[in-house]
Specification:
By secondary structure, the chain is mostly helical. The chain has helices at residues 3-23, 33-40, 44-51, 54-78, 83-100, 103-112, 114-141, 151-163, 165-175, 178-191. It starts with a helix and ends in a 9-residue tail after the last helix.
Length: 200
Amino acid sequence: MNGFEKRAEQLKAKIRAAVLTMLQTCEPKHIRIADIAAEAGVSQVTIYNYFGSKEDLIRDVFKQYVTEQVTEFERFIGSGPTFQQFVQFAVLTDKDAFRKFTPEFIQQMMSNDLAFAAYIDEVTQQTALPLMTRFIDDCKKQGQISDKVSTDMIVNYINLLMAQSHRLLEQAKQSGKGEQFFEELLHLFFYGVCGMEPEV
């Protein structure tokens, strides 16, 4: 990468970081290119040159976030975690997403942006679920997950939750306790209503 390319990537990173910060408190429709430019310390022309439009920029930011999370998930699974460690990882990941993006924004991206929704589905089906399936199989072999529930059923349950993601996001918002909502949801998923967390 030459000096010009390096400078361009640095500017793009500043712009993405500015948008990510703004999305924590603002809906996309309330964010203006002028506000992004001021936050990032760049000109509006620079933003248009690199990203084309506000919509394309916001999509790029969210897509990069998802890609980074998938990469981190791959790294984490590759480290050979226990089931308990995986639950903790999942809780922290959901909390991080809830802090960075409002439920309305996530709903909008998944409902109104067909290209982005297709990207999420592709990442889920080709990367996340295969990794999850192998992890579940390993945990079952090690006695960390009950043999009474098949891997296919667990994956089907995950797909069921994903299909209801919009409703779950709305309920998380209405609860006023978004992070706690997802923590309880994950506990319910992994340990059931009567199940107890294994001792560490």
